[in-house]
């Protein structure tokens, strides 16, 4: 039987005492895509991830992974995925290579195969020079790379990444992004939770936004940004005496309230025709402008608009 989706979630519901953590959430994750799960703290991201990885049972709803129902076929489902959380349960006093060998053996590899796989992963994640260094002496970036390497020992088809770049500096974060893209090129499916909106924008093929346990929106980053419909225009007026006139013209033409800081006016608009008409009118009034910029909505804007007032 040909299975089209890596993950299928239907009407997932989870309640702790009287608090509903996940409320009727449904979505699918396609094979070979990076699927991002976003939401404020306490929105239900971690609860969903724990249910998908069989660490927590839902009160109701269905989860299938590569066609395996977690209720009846959890063992086969678990064999298809790897999980990278905030930190893997490694032995801090052992070296990176020793940890990789131990986890390889725990995953059923022979002694010889475990050594081979450990060396492959050390090379793949640029940890060869630190292979014999104890984990307690690793930097945060090196530790995160080792965590990911451990989750890939069995070359899983599906990888759950729970905020994989938390605490990393921008340079190391970019290196992790490259590693994730490489995994996708090799055929892996990635389920990503992250607190960095830029990360989801750069990596995710599709994004699901949840809040208070409910699925608010799902789509590609571009689709979500387009739904906001408003972009932002900023322009600097040459003469301070023209700021009031320019502001009134833009407010009238763009049907929005401008913000003025010094001699810079910022205002939102819905379509480019409005901008063209506004600039033409400013020119007609002989109002000189400089430093004109237009900014499209970002995923941060989408996130704030969808979850405003709910934190």
UniProtKB/TrEMBL annotation:
GO terms for cellular component: plasma membrane. It is found in: Cell membrane. Keywords: ATP-binding, Cell membrane, Membrane, Nucleotide-binding, Translocase, Transport. GO terms for molecular function: ATP binding; ATP hydrolysis activity. SUPFAM superfamilies: P-loop containing nucleoside triphosphate hydrolases (SSF52540). Pfam families: ABC_tran (PF00005), DrrA1-3_C (PF13732). It is a peripheral membrane protein. The keyword Repeat does not apply. Residues 7-237 form the ABC transporter domain. It comes from the Bacteria. GO terms for biological process: daunorubicin transport; doxorubicin transport. PROSITE patterns: ABC_TRANSPORTER_1 (PS00211), ABC_TRANSPORTER_2 (PS50893). PANTHER family: ABC TRANSPORTER ATP-BINDING PROTEIN (PTHR42711), DOXORUBICIN RESISTANCE ATP-BINDING PROTEIN DRRA (PTHR42711:SF19). Belongs to the ABC transporter superfamily. Drug exporter-1 (DrugE1) (TC 3.A.1.105) family. This is ABC-type multidrug transport system, ATPase component. It comes from Companilactobacillus mindensis DSM 14500. The lineage of its organism: Bacteria, Bacillati, Bacillota, Bacilli, Lactobacillales.
């Amino acid at each position: 039987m040909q299975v089209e989706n890596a993950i299928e979630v239907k009407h997932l519901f989870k309640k702790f005492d009287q608090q509903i953590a996940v409320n009727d959430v449904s979505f699918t994750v396609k094979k070979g895509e990076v699927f991002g799960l976003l939401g404020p703290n306490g929105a239900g991201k971690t609860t969903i991830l724990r249910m998908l990885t069989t660490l927590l049972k839902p009160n109701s709803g269905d989860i299938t992974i590569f066609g395996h129902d977690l209720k009846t076929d959890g063992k086969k489902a678990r064999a298809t995925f790897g999980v990278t959380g905030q930190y893997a349960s490694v032995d801090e006093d052992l070296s990176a290579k020793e940890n990789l060998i131990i986890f390889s053996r725990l995953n059923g590899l022979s002694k010889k195969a475990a050594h081979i796989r450990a060396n492959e992963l050390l090379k793949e994640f640029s940890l060869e020079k630190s292979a014999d260094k104890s984990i307690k002496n690793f930097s945060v970036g090196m530790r995160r790379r080792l965590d990911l390497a451990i989750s890939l020992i069995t070359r899983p088809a599906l990888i759950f990444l729970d905020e994989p770049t938390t605490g990393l500096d921008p340079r190391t974060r970019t290196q992790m992004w490259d590693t994730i893209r490489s995994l996708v090129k090799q055929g892996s499916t990635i389920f990503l939770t992250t607190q960095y909106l830029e990360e989801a924008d750069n990596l995710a093929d599709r994004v699901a936004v949840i809040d208070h346990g409910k699925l608010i929106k799902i789509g590609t980053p571009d689709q979500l940004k387009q739904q906001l419909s408003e972009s932002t225009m900023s322009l600097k007026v040459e003469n301070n005496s023209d700021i009031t006139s320019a502001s009134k013209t833009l407010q009238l033409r763009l049907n929005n309230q401008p913000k003025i800081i010094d001699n810079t006016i910022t205002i939102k608009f819905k379509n480019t025709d409005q901008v063209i008409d506004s600039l033409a009118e400013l020119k007609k009034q002989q109002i000189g402008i400089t430093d004109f910029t237009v900014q499209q909505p970002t995923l941060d804007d989408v996130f704030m608009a969808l979850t405003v007032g709910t934190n």
